[in-house]
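User: Show me sequence and structure for the first protein, then do the same for the second.

Assistant: Starting with the first protein.
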Amino acid sequence: MHGVYSEDSNIIDFNYIKLMQLAELYAASGREGLAEACYNALDLYLSGTVEVYFKAGEPYITTPAEHASDMFENLPEE
């Protein structure tokens, strides 16, 4: 799999490529915590749990709007 699009698609998933590049760069430079964070973000992105966007070259994740209410379903009522 090459991102969230099928392999026979002509769409390139920039988020997938960039997160992999960052994870490999961080791992090669000994920054294992950042590499692991990128790999975790990539797993969540591929599963559709989060959306990824980049700002000033740094990755950020956000919960898609349709799943936002699920984040709070296990919180106790006040």
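Switching to the second protein now.
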Amino acid sequence: AMISELLTIVIPTRNRPDFLELCLRSVFDCQEAVPNVIVSDNSTSDLGAVQTLRKRYGFSYIRQSGKLSMTDHHNACLNVPQTPWALLLHDDDELYPNVLIGGTEYIDAQGVSDGAWIPETNTTVKGEEGVLRLGLDFQAYPPSCIWNLEAFRQAGEFPDANGASADYTLALRLAYSHGVTFL
């Protein structure tokens, strides 16, 4: 199957077209195969810069109300794709060239690397073993996660943790009931 039939990259954004541009550049200009890309814009005002980016890159675009909480916005993002898998790529994250997933590098505002995380093994685990493994490899969180959307919906989506998406809580639920694969 083609990547566009399997995976959608969904990019939530809010009032940060400068970050969004860097994110989009890492997807469209640095990858040989680009899956479906949807930008979900929860900005508080219309940003002409986003429309300029849309013309340049040709991504699908959803304009939200500007009033969604982070959790509601992330849940809305993962309820849009029609593909079985999705990468929720935050607007302030970028992809390495030709590497869709496989770790995270932390880079400060000056562009200096401040550490990295690469999964230790290539394995799938489920149940107690999955929860334990995810607990031991706690840095496995967005943007280093590709979500199985059917499992995401069955697990009840992202819970809210004081206004933020509790991605780690959701990942533990999924690891227990559906399994987690480290690549």
